[in-house]
Amino acid sequence: MRRIRVLVAKPGLDGHDRGAKVIARAFRDAGFEVIYTGLRQTPDQIAEAALQEDVDVVALSILSGAHNTLLPRTVEALRARGLHDVLVVAGGIIPARDIPGLKAAGIAEVFTPGTPTQAAIDFINQRLRPA
Asked: Which structural domain, as residue segments, surrounds residue 53?
């Protein structure tokens, strides 16, 4: 069985990537193949990397407060490249009141601070490898 390929990306001007590295490590430990794009990526750079790497999941980590702009733009950039089946999840400092709008924009799930990494792993496995 092919391993799940996950692109972990930091959209926008965040200068802090500890959380992204923690989740990338957790995904690797869970058996996912992980590609980490690094800091300060534009939505188009993230979408292009997802296309080139043939990923199953894009995991976005954001702390800057620009989530309502950058996350929907990233989904739009993915869809514009024909990546309609790529699962998009997000984590970071995202207020609960903003989560419904992000989900409506195509973010499958939002993981806020304190969420165990296993919750993200389980969500991806359940969506991509249903029992």
From this structure: 5-126
Q: Tens of pLDDT along 86-96?
A: 999 999 999 99
Pick from 114, 81, 130: which is nearest to 73 by CA?
Answer: 81
Q: Is position 13 within any domain?
A: yes
Which pLDDT does position 131 carry in this prediction?
62
How many whole angstroms separate alpha carbon 50 and alpha carbon 85?
12
| Distance between CA atoms of residues 46 and 70, nearest Å | 11
10, 24 in Cβ contact below 8 A? no
Strand locations in 1-115, DSSP E? 5-9, 33-36, 57-62, 87-92, 109-111
- Does the residue 62 lie in any domain? yes
Instruction: List the chain residues with pLDDT less than 50.
Output: none
What CATH code is carried by the domain that includes residue 48? 3.40.50.280
Tokens 């304190």 correspond to: 114
Domain presence at residue 116: yes
